[in-house]
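Protein fold
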Amino acid sequence: MNKKSIYLAGGCFWGTQKFFDQFDGVLETEVGYANGPTKDPCYREVCASSGHAETVRIVYDADRLSLTQLLDWYFLTIDPTSYHRQGGDKGIQYRTGIYYTDPGDLPELEARYAAEQAKYRQKLEVELLPLENFYPAEEYHQKYLDKNPGGYCHIPKDLLHMA
């Protein structure tokens, strides 16, 4: 097994986690707060514009799933031209971003990003940056849509069951 991680901010992290949990090769997911200026924020602080992005840490088996495949799926769930907004959620914590920890992943990330950019006239609003920090969200946010099946999600329900 070739375990790797990528951190994806796709608006509200509840739906992004639920979406990626459905795929074989995704070994684990965890929701949290990434690339903000303060240490270990709580949800209340993130909602008060702390500067962190609601993000999902995805651990996957790179022998079964490519990073490009994960990004293909990611781009299905977001509007990459929307600034600090996905669905009905607005604010800096709902920005979109691809945050990496392995600089060796950057060529593949840049190639997939460029392919997505080619589909649009306007500039993509998806950050492509090294991960600066990641703090796990409170337990009640983990697997939220499994615990609360009627909970809000900006991702269309058919995408949550596409695998």
